[in-house]
Amino acid sequence: MCGISGWVDYGRDLREERQTVQAMTDTMACRGPDAEGAWLAPHVAFGHRRLAIIDIEGGRQPMTAEAGGEVLAALTYSGEVYNFQELRDELLRLGHTFRTRSDTEVVLRAYLEWGDDFVSRLNGMYAFAIWDTRREELLLVRDRMGIKPLYYYPTSDGVLFGSEPKAILANPLAERVVDADGLREILAFVKTPESAVFRGMHEVRPGQVVKVRREGLSKRRYWELEAREHTDDLPTTIRTIRELLDDIVARQLISDVPLCTLLSGGLDSSAVTALAARALRGRGTVRSFSVDFSGYTENFQPDDMRDTPDTPYVHDVVRHVGADHTDIVLDSADLMDPAVRAAVLRARDVPLGIGDMDTSLYLLFKAIRERSTVALSGESADEVFGGYRWFHDPAAVGAHTFPWLATQNQTGLTTRGEFLNEELLSKLDVPAYRADSYQRALAEVPRVPGETGLQRRMREISYLHLTRFVQILLDRKDRMSMAVGLEVRVPFCDHRLVEYVFNAPWAMKTFDGHEKSLLRAATADVLPRSVVERRKVPYPSTQDPAYEHALRAAVADLLGGEPAIGCLLDTGKVQSILDQPVGAVSLQGSRTALEGLLQVNAWLDAYGVRLAL
Fold first, then answer.
1. Is residue 291 annotated as involved in ligand binding?
2. Is 103 annotated as a binding residue?
3. For residue 93, is it left (φ>0), alpha (ψ between -120 and 50) or beta?
4. What angle do the packed helices 84-93 and 103-114 form, to 10 degrees?
5. Is 377 marked within a binding site?
6. Residue 378 labelled as part of a binding site
7. Coil, strand or helix: which one is 139?
C-alpha cells in the first residue's frame, strides 16, 4: 500500500512550493516506509510514500507516462489492482510498452488508452490521482467499496488531496475547523458519505471519480449497488460463491513480500485462511496471526455480543489447515500505554475510535509487521452475507433507524456523547442527525419491481451495511494497519462477490436457520466442524476490570486539571459515571463514554482544533 498527497492550483506555480508539498507527503510516512517521491509541474504537485509490495525496484512513484519527451500524464497511486496482469496483456496487444512489472504502470497506461472510463475495468482496492497534462485536469478515484481512503479540500484556485486528513492539514490553506455537523458525525456512528469531519474537507465516495478543472470540480459515480433478479437456484448460488472466493483469494495472494492472514476463529477469517492454505499448497505454508488478552480465555464471561472466546477456535483452524500461527497476547498495560493511545489517535485523525478495540488492533498489526508486510482479512463478510445479530433481531429489523443503533447491547454506541453538557447536546440534536442520515440512505436503496415484505426490508438492511457500516470498519482497519506500514487485503469486498450476494434472496441467505448460511455452505468443506457451527462473535474486547480502573483514573486526572474539552463537559455526568462500581468483569459498553471523553480531549489538544458551533 502507499500514502499519497497532492495540490492543484491554477493560480500559482507550484514548483515553488516544494517545502509545503514535502510537509504534506511527510505525514504519509507511516503508510509508505520504503520510499518517497515528488513530482511538480506549474499547476500541480504530487507526493508519494511507498510501501513496496509488487515490483520492489520498478514501481517507484509518482509515475509519469511520456511521449516525445513530453509528460502526458502523471500518477500518484495507493492500492492493489488484482487483475493488472490481464489488463497489462490487453494493453500490450494494443501497442503499449512497459518499463516495470508494477500494477501502477498498468493503471497509468489504462487511463491513456481508455480515458476516464478505464476505472470500470479495475478489480481491486485503490485510491489515486491522475494529472492529465494535455487537459490540465485532475482525476481523484476511489475503489468501489471504499477500502482505500482519499480526501480532498477545494480551494479558491484548485484542490488539496491526500490519503488521510493529516496530509491536507499540513498545508496552510486547510483550516483545522470542526463545525456542528462535524461534531455530530463524530458522535452519531452513521458514516455520512463524503463527510470528513473537518469543515471544507470531503472524502471521495466509494466508486466515485472527482474531476478538477479550471472551470471547477465535478463528481460522478462509476459504480454503485444495483438490484437485479437472482435467477440461480441454491446449489448454483453456493457453487458460484465458492468459485468466486477461490478466484478472489488466489488473486490476493500475489505479493513480492511476506504475506499472512488475520485469524479470529470465526467463520469469515477462518474461511480466508483455509482457502489461502489450499491455494498455497505446494508453494508454502499459510502464516496466520490472532489477538488475545492475558487471562481472557480462562476468565471469559459471555455478554450480549460474545458467546465464546476466540482462541480455542483459532487453534482448531490452525490444526485443521496446518498454519504457521502466532498468538499476539496483550494486557491492560499495553492498552493504556500513552504512546500507543497517541499513535492510535494520530492514525485516526478524528476521535471516531472504539476504545480498546482500536488499540489492540494497532498493537496486533504492529506485531505482525515485524514478520509480514501483507495480511488477508475476513472483514466485511458480515455486511455481505448478513452476519450481525441485529440482522436476525426482529426489533432491530423493524426499527426506523440504522440496525446497529436499534437494540440495547453492550457496545454503547448510543452513549458516545454521554459526557457532553445538555446545552451542547440539545444544540447538536444527534438523534435528528441520525434520523436524517437514515432517511437519505433509505432513499438510495435500489429496488426490484414488485419486491415487498421481508425481502424488501432485508435488501434495505443489507444496503445500509454495505454503504454505511462497512465504511466504519474499513476505515478502522486501514488506519490501524497503515499506521505501522502493513497492507491489509479484504477478499470479501471484491465487487463481483458483493454484487452477486446482494441480490440473493434473504431466504437463501438464511436457508439453514443460521446467519451467513451461504458462506457457511460454500466453505464448510475446508473448515473444522467447531468453526462451521460457531455463532457470530465480533472482534474481541478486553474484560479486564484493571483496564476500566485505569480509564477511570485517567478521566479523574483530567477533571483535576484544565482539559481542552472542559467547556463541552458536564462534569456532574462524568462524576456519576466514575462513581458507579466496576464489576468483576468490565464490558465494552460500560466504558464507551470514558473512552470517548479521553479521545476527544486528546484530539482537541493534539490537533489544535477550533470548534465553530
1. yes
2. yes
3. alpha
4. 50
5. yes
6. yes
7. strand
**Residue 448 is labelled as binding a ligand:** no
* Residue stretches of the chain with pLDDT short of 70: 1, 408-415
Question: Would you state the pLDDT for residue 89?
Answer: 97
**pTM of the full structure:** 0.97
Pairwise CA distance, residues 74 & 66, whole Å: 9
pLDDT of residue 57: 73
What would the DSSP string read from start to end of 17-74?
-HHHHHHHHHTTTTT-BSEEEEEEETTEEEEEEE---SSTTT--SSEEEEETTEEEEE
**Four-way CATH pick for 234-533: 2.40.420.20, 3.40.50.720, 3.40.50.620, 3.40.50.1360:** 3.40.50.620
The candidate with the shortest Cα–Cα distance to 245, out of 255, 256, 237, 235, is 237
**Residue boundaries of the structural domains of the chain:** 3-221, 234-533, 545-606
Fold of domain 3-221: Glutamine Phosphoribosylpyrophosphate, subunit 1, domain 1 (3.60.20)
**pLDDT (tens digit, 9 = 90+) per residue, 538-572?**
999 999 999 999 999 999 999 999 999 999 999 99
Report which secondary-structure segment, H or E, holds 289: strand 287-293
Q: Taking a C-beta distance cutoff of 8 angstroms, is the pair 359, 335 a contact? A: yes
- Residues recognised as catalytic: 2
- Using alpha carbons, select from 50, 82, 241 the residue that is nearest to residue 147: 82
Q: What is the pLDDT of residues 137-174, one digit of tens each?
A: 999 999 999 999 999 999 999 999 999 999 999 999 99
